[in-house]
Amino acid sequence: MLKSKTFMKKTRSGGVMKIVREHYLRDDIWCGSEICTECKQESPVLQRDPSIESNLCSYPHYVIPDTNVVLHQIDVLEDPVIRNVIILQTVLQEVRHRSAPVYKRLKDIIHEQEKHFYTFTNEHHRETFIEREPGESANDRNDRAIRVAAKWYGQHLEKAESEADALKVVLLTNDLGNKQKAEESSLLVYADIIVHRLLAVAIEADSTYPDLMDKQKQSALSTNLNYRHKMSQYAQRASVAFHTQLFFKSRGILNEEGFVLFVRKNAIIVLIPKFGLEGTVFFDAKHKATPKLVFDEEGPTLKVEQHTFHIFDMVKVTISLDASNIQHQKIRMSLIEPVISGVSVPAPVVEPQAKKPKLDR
Ligand SMILES: [Zn+2]
Known about the structure:
This protein is an alpha+beta fold. The chain contains eight helices and 15 strands.
């Protein structure tokens, strides 16, 4: 089956180009499992009895790692104990784009017969190919493609295993969003550092305790870990902002040299190399009359009254802390130089900073 997608694209010279993308979807891509009676495969890669010699899972299973797990746990995947792993084409492509060395190591593993790593070309399989949805990022689309393929495997093998023991497919992910969405579609997933821990147990680099193998407890543990991880990220970000504000609060209004990083319709974004600080000088402040602004996208430049700002222009600005809203204190920048009448502010009188008293030795 041929799926083609046609769309129009505007060229640089202003013309219109018609682009046709062809994508072949096939129904002769096999699952690669020995237990399957439906697929017409000659030498299946995935073993009938894929028991990993550990208490990782109590049931036989195939593992599908997502891209991040491959990128971060390639050492573990190389261990001889880890076998019967399904590498999705989506994952393979993402790994190839993100790390050439890991991609090479993964290809080496796939070529080792005794590892039983199977590459499944999910992007060309009629039932697992998905189109990117409007507003969906390429990343989210790929995550979804991985979940769709993992789900397809679960259902496909369920059909096949009438006489065999229940064989499950386990999606390994350390991405919170992916985990939640996968759980909604009732896949078996492990999240976060649990993935690392379980893989470490599997290669006997670590020991475990019964609770870690309990699915309910593990799920609660993962949720808690993810929650704490997220909160610590928030705290980290808030802390950076807090300390930047504290710093400028203690220094008072400063007169600093900076460079124009970007120009916008109503503002310039200035970088102060001395502090590694970026800030915005707005020209349409509420309490002042707006000067004449001409924004030219092509430059890009912004003309404020008679002065034109280009990217990388040197400017002088004041930096101060606006504490008018105690909940949302903000770093403010105003223009000192170039002097534009009605726009620039006078340079503040900066008192020399009191030196820190020296410690007696
Ligand atoms: Zn099959």
